[in-house]
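Reminder to self: keep the SMILES exactly as supplied, no canonicalising. Ligand is 2-(3,6-dihydroxyphenyl)acetic acid.
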Amino acid sequence: MGLAYMPGFGNDFETESLPGALPQGQNSPQRAPYGLYAEQLSGSPFTAPRGTNERSWLYRIRPSVRHTSRFKSMSAPYWKSAPNVDDGDLPIGQLRWDPTPMPNEATTFVHGIRTMTTAGDVHTQVGMASHVYAFNTAMEDDYFFNADGEMLVVPQEGTLDLFTELGRMAVAPGEIAIIPRGMMVQVGLTDGPCRGYICENYGAKFTLPDRGPIGANCLANPRDFKTPVAAYEDKEKPCRVQVKWGGRFYETEIDHSPLDVVAWHGNYTPYKYDLSTFSPVGAILFDHPDPSIFTVLTAPSGEEGTANVDFVIFPPRWMVAENTFRPPWYHRNIMSEFMGLIKGQYDAKEKGFVPGGMSLHNMMLPHGPDAFGFEKASTAKLEPVKLDETMAFMFETRYPQHVTSYAAESQTLQDDYLDCWTGLKKRFDGTPEGNWD
Ligand SMILES: O=C(O)Cc1cc(O)ccc1O
Ligand SMILES: [Fe+2]
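Structure tokens returned for the bound complex:
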């Protein structure tokens, strides 16, 4: 697929797939070019301050009100929303899962989503959900939008073809994509079955974190975010629009494709980002910094420095710190940490946490390197070491993450996760050196 993208984060873009399709100098001409309908998609209240005001103007073959009528409920039993109170008494402990198996039957993206955790309350636009997806079949005449939140998609296997209202993106493992709240999408695949993770963000949109004293460069740079150019289909045949709204699912039949936006302008857009363009900043003399230095995107909660959810990565990097225990320290955290592994190994858990797997270290629950990792890092010669061919990530939220019954009862849940810490011996023997035998 030779797809084209426009660079920049939060830019005001304009794009047309037919010459002259985009009105110039105004949004609502009496008649839009090509007989298109003008429609505004508001991603923020009209009155939001400039810095967070987001909307796009879409010029489309039919207005989307022609795409959304007579909804009937649809079943998507594994996609849960917060508060997920029906699932009863579920484990709070440190949890870890093996990779979700690929489905055996034909499964599309929407039906291949399994919720692992939910946090906050979808009805008040607070919190998030962590999902896995595994699917093997392209959506043909099905289209989907999620009114409950934006979706941060983190592929682990297989390249996604995300055909959104504003254009088309190919998103491979090592890249991420954002599908804005309310934006129509059709998900296809290009190179076999797909698996990955989704952060469904019910709250304020993801944005770039401030860099503070780091300055004007490094971490995720705005130019590396890519928004698709306009693309449309003029398809007249029976189709379905599937909707997630208020934690429930609905479906409606229509007689044409809703991906009929010929031109658009604005700043409420889907985008993708290649994680290898993240320029990490880290410890160049001693100690292990807080993982917030690796924040790619942050979704604020309204309380300063307290994210509704952060998306943090652990990319390839050099470890050079002197006289330092280099892996993550032992930790208890008011924030809740859901982690996944896209490829390679994670330095706190060389075994057991595998690509496609997941872990959950919930609010105030202790965690840290396993016994093997502790031993190794405590005795290693501290030369410069490159952690290479690796990419782990974390969805870190201020709200406790409640596991779903699917996650708690899954065959992939590791019963023996806690054992990874049992080998942590008492080293204290009253001498300043401690006992390292
Ligand atoms: O592995 C984790 O739990 C994530 C994590 C990484 C790190 O470098 C420091 C703290 C932390 O919680
Ligand atoms: Fe942690």
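Points to follow up:
The chain has two domains: 5-275, 281-417.
Residues 291, 328, 331, 337, 348, 361, 367, 394 surround 2-(3,6-dihydroxyphenyl)acetic acid (ligand 1) (CB under 6 Å).
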